[in-house]
């Protein structure tokens, strides 16, 4: 009887590792870390929130959008959306988010990682700060570009 039970365990053990392997591949390919939450959002908003973090060329933006899932009708409308929400840099054919759209961003966008959220806060603080220097909020006078870009200075925050 014991031999039969062992045999039963062996025959059942065969498909189980295969199922586990299939599931792990699926999860890795789909990237469940917020994919479904982003996929349900309007395509225009997804484009805006990606362009807020950095400039993209159209093919790399499309590839990035496809990682989270993209419908064919959305894929076909990317050019029109880019005309609405982005400025084209003709030197390198990259797109950057139009300035007025930074006010509409959601800092808790489900497609953002913790790093993305931190980067967005930094970007937004630069855009809204009149001095254009996020570390100068407590300073009365903003340093000039050469001082601001200089390496370590004792008066500045080293974080």
UniProtKB/TrEMBL annotation:
Gene Ontology CC terms: transcription elongation factor complex
Gene3D superfamilies hit by this protein: E3 ubiquitin-protein ligase
Annotated ranges, domain RNA polymerase II elongation factor ELL N-terminal: 32-127
Compositionally biased region (Polar residues): 128-141
Record InterPro entries: E3_ELL-like, ELL/occludin, ELL_N, WH_DNA-bd_sf
Example GO BP: transcription elongation by RNA polymerase II
Region (Disordered): 1-20, 125-159
Pfam family, one: ELL
Gene Ontology molecular function, alphabetical: cis-regulatory region sequence-specific DNA binding
Protein name as it appears in the record: RNA polymerase II elongation factor ELL N-terminal domain-containing protein
Lineage: Eukaryota, Metazoa, Chordata, Craniata, Vertebrata
